[in-house]
Amino acid sequence: MSGTDLLDGDRDQRERGGLRVPGMVNLVLGVPAMIPLYLVWWLLTEYMPMDCPSTGDPAGAGAVNCDYTTLDHAFPVMLLLAVTGLFMLLLVLMVDVLLPLRRGDRLGGWLGTAVLILVPFTGCTALVHG
Asked: What would the pLDDT profile of 39-60 be if each residue is shown by its tens digit?
C-alpha cells in the first residue's frame, strides 16, 4: 500500500462523512474544556444561589446561604472563566470550523460532534457527585 493509497482512503472516508475522527477530536477537546465547564458549574451552584443583600455584611438580616468564602472566590473564578472560556472558544472555532474548511471537509460532521466536548465533564461530574 503506497502513500497515495492511504491519502485516497482518507479522502474517501471524509467524503463518506465519517464521524470517527471528528468525534475523537471533540472528545479530546472536552478534557481541557473541563476547566471552564467546572467554573460555570461552580458559579451556578455556589455563587448564584446566594442571596446576599450586601457584600459588606454577608451574615446580616435577610442573608440566605451567604458566606465570605464564596464571595471572596467569585471574582477570581469569573476572571479564570473568562480567560479559559475564551481560549476554549477559540480552540473549538479553529478545530471544528477553520481546519475542516481549509481541508475541504463538511462542517456538519465536525459541528454535529461538538456536543461530545461535554462528555468528559459530564462523566467526571457523575462520578464525583453520583
From this structure: 999 999 988 877 775 566 555 6
